[in-house]
Specification:
The complex is a heterodimer of chains A (121) and B (108).
Chain A (H helix, E strand, L loop, with lengths): L2 E5 L3 E2 L5 E8 L8 E6 L5 E7 L6 E3 L7 E6 L4 E6 L8 E8 L8 E4 L3 E5 L2
Parallel strand pairs in A: 2-11
Antiparallel strand pairs in A: 1-3, 3-8, 4-5, 4-9, 5-6, 7-8, 9-10, 9-11
Chain B lengths: L8 E4 L5 E6 L9 E5 L6 E4 L13 E6 L2 E6 L8 E9 L4 E4 L3 E5 L1
The chains are: A mainly beta (121), B mainly beta (108).
Chain lengths: 121, 108
């Protein structure tokens, strides 16, 4: 059974930093592209970042580029999101998500339950 | 940046057909994926690669994609289909994934 378990969400002050983690199990982690997707309270889904199966390629939304960094450790079946220079508008539930395969154009077949990040003074 | 536009809401009576559109510039050249999200839950894929259904998704869910519009069709709508629905594409020119604005389906 595929499982994605996020952790690391907390309340942080504007300008602060945070590292989210996602522990993956139930599939061969290094065969798949992985995503972070967020959802602000009462709002729609927003794609945040993507990383290739080997970590060699990463892409991020313009809203987080230069502030957030996606990474993975295939030896530990783990996905990460380093979040710097946090803003109040980054407040959201952050989902770790698995793609159908290694191609970037594939959809997402599994989602975690999310970890809540609140940016507030 | 690439934008996907969906109607904010669609209302449909039980047993009828709901159609949710997703508009984007030349979206027909991209693979479109559709997700259902119920309150307090993570999204679930209902259609991927324009028209394929994952195992466990009823045949009542179908998709099409051509020109500037992709469509998710829910036939014989049931009360349990009430949810928010989002389309998604990978825009190869911008190297960004994009979600649509979302559509709330209400079963009357």
């Amino acid at each position: 059974e595929v499982q994605l378990v996020e952790s690391g969400g907390v309340v942080v002050q504007p300008g602060g930093s945070l590292r989210l983690s996602c522990a993956a199990s139930g599939f061969t982690f290094d065969d798949y592209t992985m995503h972070w997707v967020r959802q602000a309270p009462g709002k729609g889904l927003e794609w945040v970042s993507l990383i290739s199966w080997d970590g060699g390629s990463t892409y991020s939304a313009d809203s987080v580029k230069g502030r957030f960094t996606i990474s993975r450790d295939n030896s530990k079946n783990s996905l990460f999101l380093q979040m710097n220079s946090l803003r109040t508008e980054d407040t959201a539930l952050y989902y770790c998500a698995k793609a159908f395969g290694y191609s970037y154009g594939l959809g997402i077949d599994y989602w975690g339950q999310g970890t809540l990040v609140i940016v507030s003074s | 940046s690439y934008v996907l536009t969906q109607p904010p809401s669609v209302s449909v009576a039980p047993g009828q057909t709901a159609r949710i559109t997703c508009g984007g510039d030349n979206i027909g050249s991209e693979s479109v994926h559709w997700y259902q999200q119920k309150p307090g839950q993570a999204p679930v894929v209902v259609v991927y690669d324009d028209s394929d259904r994952p195992s466990g998704i009823p045949e009542r869910f179908s998709g099409s994609n051509s020109g500037n519009t992709a469509t998710l069709t829910i036939s014989r709508v049931e009360a349990g289909d009430e949810a928010d629905y989002y389309c998604q594409v990978w825009n190869s020119s911008s190297h960004h994934s994009v979600f649509g604005t979302g559509t709330k389906v209400t079963v009357l």
